[in-house]
Amino acid sequence: MKAFISVDLEGMPYVVIPGHLSLKGSLYDEARKISTKVTVIVAEELNKNGFDDVVIADSHGPMVNLLKALRKLFNKGIIDSENRRYKLSNR
């Protein structure tokens, strides 16, 4: 099975003030860590439940919000930097 995850900072747990949401915000790095951690958890759970391919889209603002930790999820992590898509596959 395949899954598509679209990640935005608004709505993430503990992301509650404007300082979390912009590149120059005082808490932007914290929001990036939170969104990456949540995304990793979701992708791992999907994988455990039979999803072989997971595509993750960074969908907030300039699309540079997710950390490189996503590459380490599966053995074959591919980042399409032009479209800011992370394709994680167990095949």
The proportion of strand residues reads 15-25%
Rg: 13 Å
Q: Total helix count?
A: 1
Give the structural class.
alpha+beta
Give the tally of structural domains: 1
The dominant shape is elongated
Q: Fraction of residues in helices? A: 10-25%
Q: Helices and strands, in N-to-C order?
A: EHEEE
The spatial strand order of the largest sheet comes to 1-2-4-3
Report the sheet with the most strands, covering strand number, pairing sense and barrel closure. Answer: 4 strands, mixed
Quote the average pLDDT: 78
Distance between the termini: 11 Å
What's the total count of β strands?
A: 4
Low-confidence stretches: none
Brief rundown of the structure:
The protein is α+β, with helices and mostly antiparallel strands and 91 residues long. It has one helix and four strands, in the order βαβββ.
Secondary structure layout plus pairing:
Elements: E1 2-7, H1 28-48, E2 53-58, E3 76-80, E4 85-89
Parallel strand pairs: 1-2
Antiparallel strand pairs: 2-4, 3-4
Describe this structure in words.
By secondary structure, the protein is α+β, with helices and mostly antiparallel strands. It has one domain (2-89). It has one helix spanning 28-48, and strands at 2-7, 53-58, 76-80, 85-89. A four-stranded mixed β-sheet has the order 1-2-4-3, covered by helices on one side. Strand 1 (2-7), helix 1 and strand 2 (53-58) form a beta-alpha-beta unit. It is elongated and about 40 Å long. The chain starts with a strand and ends with a strand.
